[in-house]
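Students often ask why we bother encoding 3D structure as a string. The short answer is that it lets us treat folding as translation between two languages. Here is a chain of 690 residues written in the first language.
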Amino acid sequence: MTKSEIPTTTVNFSQSGASTTSDERGMREMQARAYDKRGYQYLLIKSPPASGKSRALMFIALDKLYVQKIGKAIVVVPERSIGSSFANTDLKTYGFDYDFVVEPKWNLCNAPGADEKRANKSTVKAVGEFLDSDDRILICTHATFRFAFEELGVEAFDDCLIAIDEFHHVSMSEDNVLGRQLAEIITHGKVHVVAMTGSYFRGDAVPVLSPGDEEKFETVTYTYYEQLNGYEYLKSLSLSYNFYSGKYLDAIPEVLDPNLKTILHIPNVNARESTKDKIKEAEEIMGMLGTWRGKDPDTGFHLIEAKDGRIIKVADLVEDERDREQVMSSLKDPRTNKDKDWVDIIIALGMAKEGFDWIWCEHALTVGYRSSLTEIVQIIGRTTRDAPGKTHARFTNLIAEPDASEGVVTDAINDTLKAIAASLLMEQVLIPNFKFTPKQPIEQAVAQEGFDYGEDGYDPSGNNIGVRQGDQAEFHIEIRGLKEPTTDEGKRVCEEDIKELVAAVLQDKPTVEQALFNLDAIPEETTVVRTMNIVRQRYPNLPPEDQEAARQRVVAAMNMMEMAQKGRKSLEEEGVDITVNTQLLDGIRKYATDVRDLDVDLIDSINPFQSAYSILSKTMDEKTLRQLQTVITNKKLSIPYEEARQLALRARKFRQERGRSPLASSSDSWERKMAEGVAALARHAMKNPQ
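And here it is in the second language, the structure alphabet:
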């Protein structure tokens, strides 16, 4: 049975319809924004699921081929199923100059024996044949492209457009073949690249691109906030986490609503949640839905008669490969998105995630912790499609509850941390971008920014908050003491990469562990020391002042949500009605009663995980929570060199401001921590004299 639920986030949308409306060329808002940048050799499109990235690429590729006179276009996708997103498309009917047409033999995702992880000889050979042909467009998997590139060499792709879908599969890691090949392509300089992703962060700490290579890409950003607020039908999305004890199958009836269009991901067979028999797990879940009445011979879907007599159509993507092929083919059928009753529930293991398009999906139910936050974001993206009559979507993660009595409580820590990190990450993903600027006199702000905050530095609308909503859903907030970046790359990082850096902080297990479970931890350990380490690792070539500017913005972004949640809760308790468009700002205003007093020191003193801890303390029994805290506290080691160095730098600033060094005996925990850092740095210097 489920033991508890973490009620995390419910986000409401304004339903403006803007993101689904097409212009005279047949382009939606995001597609037009990307098309305007079509002339760049390297283009990076950051845009959420269902925003139309595949169609945007079609527009750009056709312009590259027929206007810019690029020789060929190769579209590279991680899964064969995603290849269907690039099927022949009539674009002239909607006002564009060309149609997107792929000869059947060059859609290698449909080739017999094609595979997401391996590439057979015929598909690799086909890439070479395509390059020698007069045809213009080819679709293949990442695997096929990797092997073809190794066999043919970079020169074979000169004068080609390489379009990489689900770009977060690429990384700087030496083990990432596609990442190494992309670096070679960029160094070679004779290939055009369009990279597309709905989550420009990976499940590990490795960057997608090196800072040097990333500088060469022109970026198009279309946020979740813009996308979801621009829908016509969908008006809210909720995220929740349920703990269960015993077998997960016993908890399924409590979280699986057969009346909702659902994608259910069961755990990997190697996961501790798994019974190690995935076939029986799927069968047992179908048995919970009702009485099996056979298979539809045309689709391969299981037909389950519910207690009310309704027939539930279940697509089983867990069963053996032969049957799974028929089911996958049926899910690719255009009727999947045209007919709401085509299928009701999809049971999957490793499929139906990124790139899988089923607009009717209302509920993504995932059992066990996922290997990465990226994977969770992609799964949630399966529900965030706009469809007639679909007003609410939800994501539920069913997680094994730590059991303090078993003595293996540490085995569940990763699951809990992933759930919390995913919740916090999705909060960041689903809100507008924050643009933080230093607090300055209003005359100077007007001169530099070209807009008027109004009297006292406030928004002229009368909201009495130093915030402005920009053209691309940005909220501008002034913070006293905020550092400005000094280099072009520093400015780019502060303007474009803050959410990616937030994701890096949330994916850093030691940071989350210490912030949540270490009884002796103080906020500045997370906000100042650990966050700066992550910024320095990600951008080692930035000057220190730019690293600090980025760090401050990362912490500010994370803590804006803390302020908003606390303020919003207070307003709700007071019975104040909060509208969709102002809920975030109303919460911030309530928490920071005078936003003119926002400063860097205040923001650094707020633990960005304190709301998550509050939720844990309510949902876990005290014994389990204390045991988790004991486990983490006991893992605490001596201060490593880089952390000691950061603390010593802070201690120097402290001495400059107060005329004395931090005291180890101080009643202030942050001052004591700085003193510990100075002592630790001295010990490191003694052990490793220069």
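Translate back mentally: The chain has three domains: 2-10+231-427, 18-227, 432-636. Keep this in mind for the problem set.
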